[in-house]
Amino acid sequence: QVLLVESGGGLVQAGDSLRLSCAASGRTFSSYVVGWFRQAPGKEREFVARIDWSIGTTLYADSVKGRFTISRGNAGNTVWLQMNSLKPEDTAVYYCAANRWRWSTAPDYWGQGTQVTVSS
């Protein structure tokens, strides 16, 4: 069992930055692929970014490429999502998710979500 806890959301203006964190409680992310999804009101949940912890490879949705960066924390149990040049369309609840060994479009473990609101 992997317990994920997100933090760092908030209300910002367009063009601002935020950094979200996803912490694994009681364990490290070694052997996991960790990613971020988001869900805006009235829309389906969509993939944002992921990182393979063991080798560090990353993948981004086209909508965030060049603005968002996913990275690993040094302690082994935190993943960061640095979000720059935020747009109103980035407004959503952001969820951290993790799956062991390989990525899945439906990861096994999810956090509770953190709200990001970008005003124009």
Description:
The chain has strands spanning 3-7, 10-13, 18-25, 32-39, 46-52, 58-60, 68-72, 78-83, 92-100, 109-110, 114-119. By secondary structure, it is mostly beta strands. The strands form 2 sheets. Strands 2, 4, 5, 6, 9, 10 and 11 form a 7-stranded mixed sheet that branches. It has no helices and 11 strands. The model has no long low-confidence stretch (mean pLDDT 95). The radius of gyration is 13 Å and the shape is globular.
What order do the helices and strands come in, and which of them pair?
Layout: E1 3-7, E2 10-13, E3 18-25, E4 32-39, E5 46-52, E6 58-60, E7 68-72, E8 78-83, E9 92-100, E10 109-110, E11 114-119
Parallel strand pairs: 2-11
Antiparallel strand pairs: 1-3, 3-8, 4-5, 4-9, 5-6, 7-8, 9-10, 9-11
Helix content: under 10%
> Which stretches of 5+ consecutive residues score pLDDT under 50?
none
Measured on Cα atoms, how large is the radius of gyration?
A: 13 Å
Structural class: mainly beta
Beginning-to-end CA distance, first to last residue: 40 Å
Give the biggest sheet.
7 strands, mixed
Q: Name the helix and strand elements from N-terminus to C-terminus, one letter apiece.
A: EEEEEEEEEEE
Mean pLDDT: 95
